[in-house]
């Protein structure tokens, strides 16, 4: 993925400006039919923009052509004349487009399209060469009914503090900082609740992670 291009695209979109030249980046696209909380597709795609217009092309050839409407950034009309809207609910990880019949989530990080090939390392891509410890944590994606598990790398500090980097089901990596007086996350809003010996992390996008105190404190 061309991360420099992705960053440029995001800045242009969020500022409501376009470019005289087209620019594009490879991305990963997740498609949710209207009214559904489970995706119908998670596929490679190409995201491009030109003078404020946006084109999203999925691997199967499906194309969404969105033309800006009015003076308010984020308002579009699709190729069929239907209203479409851009949301920034993914932060710097991507963009959400609400269309007439579906929502398209565009992620700049394409790692989830190619799962790690290291079958011998159950916490891949994290290893103890880079972290004090690795593990898998209980995690639940937005809309899921049941928990799965997500790999994590743990960097421990003094006073039973730690920074834990987790890779979620979409291949996005986020670091949660467990400090003496607070818990926060990079690029994410969360509510952290200590339930017995486990931190329950509820994220603004609907994800839920569980982090045992033992992972933070070590032996």
What would you say about this model in short?
By secondary structure, the protein is mainly β.
What does this protein structure show overall?
The protein has 219 residues and is mainly beta. The chain folds into two domains: 3-111; 115-217, Lipocalin (Beta Barrel). It is built from two helices and 16 strands. It has helices at residues 3-14, 213-217; strands spanning 23-33, 41-50, 53-58, 63-68, 75-77, 83-87, 94-98, 102-107, 133-140, 148-157, 161-167, 173-178, 183-185, 190-195, 198-203, 208-212. Strands 1-2-3-4-5-6-7-8 form an eight-stranded antiparallel β-barrel. The protein has an eight-stranded antiparallel beta sheet with strand order 13-12-11-10-9-16-15-14. The radius of gyration is 19 Å and the shape is elongated. It starts with a helix and ends with a helix. The model is unreliable at 1-11 and 14-21 (pLDDT under 50). Residues 1-22 form the signal peptide. Keywords: Signal.
Question: What is the topology?
Answer:
Blueprint lengths: L2 H12 L8 E11 L7 E10 L2 E6 L4 E6 L6 E3 L5 E5 L6 E5 L3 E6 L25 E8 L7 E10 L3 E7 L5 E6 L4 E3 L4 E6 L2 E6 L4 E5 H5 L2
Antiparallel strand pairs: 1-2, 1-8, 2-3, 3-4, 4-5, 5-6, 6-7, 7-8, 9-10, 9-16, 10-11, 11-12, 12-13, 14-15, 15-16
Annotation keywords:
single chain; 219 residues; mainly beta; Lipocalin; 2 domains; eight-stranded antiparallel beta barrel; eight-stranded antiparallel β-sheet; 2 helices; 8% helix; disordered N terminus; signal
């Amino acid at each position: 993925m061309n991360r420099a291009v992705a960053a440029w695209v995001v800045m242009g979109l969020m500022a409501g400006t376009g470019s005289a030249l087209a620019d594009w980046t490879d991305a990963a696209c997740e498609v949710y039919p209207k009214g559904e909380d489970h995706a119908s597709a998670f596929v490679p795609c190409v995201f491009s923009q030109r003078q404020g217009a946006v084109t999203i092309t999925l691997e199967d050839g499906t194309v969404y052509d969105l033309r800006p409407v009015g003076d308010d950034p984020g308002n579009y009309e699709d190729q069929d004349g239907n209203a479409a809207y851009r949301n920034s609910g993914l932060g710097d990880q991507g963009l959400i487009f609400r269309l007439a019949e579906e929502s398209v989530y565009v992620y700049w990080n394409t790692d989830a399209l190619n799962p790690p090939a290291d079958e011998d390392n159950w916490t891949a891509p994290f290893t103890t060469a880079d972290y004090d410890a690795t593990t898998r944590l209980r995690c639940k994606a937005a809309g899921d009914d049941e928990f799965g598990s997500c790999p994590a790398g743990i960097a421990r500090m003094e006073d039973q503090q730690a920074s834990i980097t987790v890779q979620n089901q979409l291949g996005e990596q986020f670091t949660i900082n467990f400090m003496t007086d607070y818990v926060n996350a990079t690029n994410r809003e969360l509510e952290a609740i200590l339930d017995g010996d486990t931190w329950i992390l509820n994220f603004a996008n609907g994800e839920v992670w569980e982090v045992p105190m033992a992972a933070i404190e070590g032996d």
